[in-house]
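Below is a filled-in request sheet from our internal design queue. Each sheet records the structural input a requester submitted and the sequence that came back. We keep these sheets so that new team members can see what a complete request looks like end to end.

REQUESTER: design group, bay 2
PRIORITY: normal
MODE: inverse folding
CHAIN LENGTH: 190
BACKBONE (tokenized):
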């Protein structure tokens, strides 16, 4: 009908958490807010992860991201509805050979299915890498993660973020599914 406003698109061209140049490069982006995990988020986080990952996480596992000095979890929320759209969690681990060196370990990353391919995963991963790097008491040399060898989308995503396949761990998941260990040598500073 003439003069009638077009329906609001799901993806809006505004992303306050990344530099302007990145906004201009993107054609489809979500308006998101990123904050740190706190106890009141526990149930929502557990629910989100069970909807978006094939593994289940106990409360005590998740609470380490609040209580442990070396662990961090970031939550991306839709700017207007406040719904969780993505979660990333990781920690830094000291090198056994040299205590002056740390490695970032990306332990959890998931984006809500309807929000994928909007840059949310990339922003979360880069923010976490940056946080681990700035909060570690030693130099963070590399960042690594485990991913199922069958998860082609995630492998492509991590390769796109600068991670390379280092080795394959047989039966890493429940003794049945192999994991690829992927590593990156230059962490993001955003
Ligand atoms: C992997 C995952 C976190 C990626 O999040 P995302 O927000 O969709 O990723 P982004 O939009 O930031 O993608 C960045 C780039 O990664 C690559 N990429 C992401 N998803 C991809 C896919 N399904 N196929 C191919 N490439 C992909 C693309 O190069 C993409 O850039 P482009 O969209 O400009 O081409 C998301 O797919 C997910 O939550 N999957 C289910 C849970 C999971 O497997 N987690 C990882 C466990 S280790």
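RETURNED SEQUENCE:
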């Amino acid at each position: 009908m003439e003069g009638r406003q077009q329906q609001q698109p799901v993806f809006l061209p505004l992303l306050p958490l990344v530099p302007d140049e990145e906004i201009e490069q993107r054609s489809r982006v979500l308006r998101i807010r990123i904050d740190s995990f706190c106890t009141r988020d526990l149930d929502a986080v557990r629910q989100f992860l069970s909807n978006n990952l094939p593994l289940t996480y106990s409360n005590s596992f998740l609470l380490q991201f609040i209580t442990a000095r070396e662990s961090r979890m970031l939550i991306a929320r839709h700017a207007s509805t406040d719904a969780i759209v993505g979660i990333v969690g990781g920690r830094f681990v000291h090198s056994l050979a040299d205590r002056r060196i740390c490695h970032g370990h990306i332990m959890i990353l998931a984006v809500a299915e309807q929000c994928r391919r909007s840059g949310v995963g990339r922003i979360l991963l880069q923010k976490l890498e940056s946080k681990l790097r700035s909060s570690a008491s030693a130099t963070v040399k590399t960042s690594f993660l485990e991913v199922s060898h069958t998860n082609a989308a995630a492998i492509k995503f991590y390769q796109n973020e600068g991670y390379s396949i280092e080795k394959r761990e047989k039966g890493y998941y429940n003794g049945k599914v192999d994991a690829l260990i992927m590593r990156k040598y230059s962490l993001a500073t955003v």
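SHEET NOTES:
- The mean pLDDT is 86.
- The radius of gyration is 18 Å.
FILED BY: M.R.
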